[in-house]
Amino acid sequence: MRHLKELILLSILIINLFILYGCVKHKDTREYSLGQNFSPYFFAVKNPSKEDWYILNSYIREFNYPTNIEAAIMLGGYYVKKGELEKAKTILENNLSKIGSVGFTKLIGYMWLYYVYLQLDYQKKANEKLIKINEYKGQDFFEKALKAFCISISEPIGSINYSCLDRLSEKSVSKKPHEKIIKLNYDNKSIESNLQLNYQISESIFVDKKSINQKMVDAMIYAINKFNLNYHIIMDGGDGAGHNIYLYKEDNEILLNYYGKQINFGWDYLDEVNNFYDNVPLDRKKMILIIVSDEFKQVGKYLAKLYNNNNYNAKLLLYTDEGYKYDLKALENKYDDNVTFINIGNEDEIVNYMPLIRFFFNYETDVFSIISYFTGLYLKNIYNDYFNNSYVVAQANLTKDESKIFIKEFENFMGYKPAIWSFIGYDVICFLKNKNNNLNNNYNGYLTDVIYISDSSKNVERNFYLFYINNNVVNEIFRLLNFSDFIIDNL
After folding, report:
1. What's the chain's average pLDDT?
2. Cα dist. 4→10, 12, 14, 17, 18 in Å?
3. Burial level of 75, CB count in 10 A (0-12/13-18/19+)?
4. Which member of 1, 22, 256, 271 has the greatest number of CB atoms within 10 A?
């Protein structure tokens, strides 16, 4: 009996320990999906967040040289931006010597360490580091590192000849005149000229991190660098109060709040189906079957009503309904091949619609796929049989040469291929560049075929393409608007 009591007590103790252990708040061991290609520039210029600390430490733990050392230097920069200078000093001093050749990462690390030395009054070390930094002036990575450094410490960038580095050294001289600080010698006239032309404040773009895709932000960083613009990105939650430029996503709208004006860079499917109805005549004798997912149900209903109100016979089918394939079979029995299909959805979503359409109806049946953007996905071997002899309607053609150049340059810059969000992120910065240069709203520099941004309308105006796919070749058979046509129409 005594042994039984001891056994019961031991069991109770084990259970209590298990409950206690399960309830203790442990150190955060969250896991992050880490890409194989680490982007130092991204972490160098972004506003610091707690997630950065976890991600950078994960790169340090899980990757080999040079990625782990580059991540350590970015962690030093993280502490610089947080104002924790002793931590920054320790990390940068311990890791900068571990990188062999000097490139962007090592040079900005030198700049951060120079800044730390100045703030902590290590004047001799600051002098030595500034001499080292200036040795690389003229290298192709110097300007990129300099700009990223100035953004990271929230200082105006200035110019190569008179930058935030020069101003830091001057401030240090005025604070401690007995200390010898190395600085570049420029005459007053040159400095005044550079101040007038290049002393621009780095303006913030507030990005809602809860709703905006990271790949869009990466493209914004790439475009800021490409166009040499004085913007830096702040990623945080909230409503962007106090910021003149604020980017967030709401439903299917990607909204840029620019000094009080709202601009939607998202895809306007309602406008697209209206253009389709107005410009693509269909055979009234054929049954029109409109296939959508739940996301596009309202747009599909709108288009079906439009046809039915104008003496067509249109029916809406939900691909996500359990009885979808049985509905297709019943319609095939009733109408044979005397139908026209209109698919509405995202480009990669519609690949799920096509197999059953081609199974029940022959390849002579007209099929139109209304999508937001066309990347050429339907030409891939696994899809091209389904989409052969079909039409594609799109607001943007991402198979153009400009898109191919962007894909290549972005991949070189960020280390991975861009997603569709990346194209939109680029266009957001393109809009800001055009505003800075006082260009007209219809400047044609956008990747997603933006042709006009009205001062009175929220949605951007995009092209309307109709493509025909035949034998794995895409033919553009109709374009509602192009840039030159729009200019002529609006003179």
Report:
1. 80
2. 10, 12, 15, 20, 21
3. buried
4. 256
